[in-house]
Design a protein that fits this description.
Strand order of the largest sheet: 1-2
Helix content: 55-70%
Protein name: MarR family transcriptional regulator
Mean pLDDT: 90
Order of helices and strands: HHHHEEHHH
Organism: Janthinobacterium violaceinigrum
CATH class of one domain: Mainly Alpha
Distance between the termini: 40 Å
GO molecular function: DNA-binding transcription factor activity
Low-confidence stretches: none
CATH topology of one domain: Arc Repressor Mutant, subunit A
Number of helices: 7
Largest sheet: 2 strands, antiparallel
Radius of gyration: 23 Å
Length: 170
């Protein structure tokens, strides 16, 4: 007779997985914070009439600074993958915040630039950044400067990656 998959006195757990609030799941915790910030920022944006997607503000800011750029240029400036940038582009086009033209030297390449509406939205976002900075100053007074902590952790992992920090039994 086949062994039952239910719990029995003979069945013993051979391993104990880490609880999801364990440090092993640091990425999950950081992602939860990121999602929470995006959700709460969206509420602020809605109140202020900002239609730029929360997670596309840095892309729009860089694009406005450059004036015109390819997806590769934007990815390089943002420190993101080309794929991530390309995932954001269609929505920005649909919202009328950016436009594009084909590159004169490479027909496969598109050059993106902000529209007048995109620049108008960025002006609203800039007004909002003052309020967001103040809110974060209050948050950081409560919990410590999260941004500096994240930057220090990122720099430390770039200097010495996780695989180099693990003493694996070889």
């Amino acid at each position: 007779m086949a062994a039952s998959r239910g719990t029995s006195a003979l069945t013993k757990k051979t391993h104990s997985p880490a609880a999801i609030d364990d440090a092993v799941f640091l990425g999950r915790a950081v992602e939860r914070l990121s999602v929470l910030i995006a959700e709460q920022s969206r509420i602020v944006f809605d109140t202020m009439g900002i239609v730029i997607p929360v997670r596309s503000c840095s892309l729009m800011t860089v694009l406005a600074t450059l004036g015109a750029a390819s997806a590769s240029d934007l990815a390089r400036e943002l420190g993101h993958s080309h794929q991530l940038v390309m995932q954001k582009i269609p929505k920005l086009l649909r919202l009328g915040l950016i436009q594009y033209r084909n590159d004169d030297h490479d027909a496969r390449r598109r050059i993106f630039m902000p529209t007048e509406e995109g620049l108008s939205q960025l002006a609203k976002f800039e007004q909002c950044t003052v309020l967001i900075r103040e809110a974060y100053a209050g948050l950081f007074a409560e919990v410590g400067d999260v941004r500096q902590f994240v930057d220090r952790a990122t720099d430390a992992l770039n200097e010495k990656p996780l695989d180099k920090r693990i003493n694996s039994p070889a």
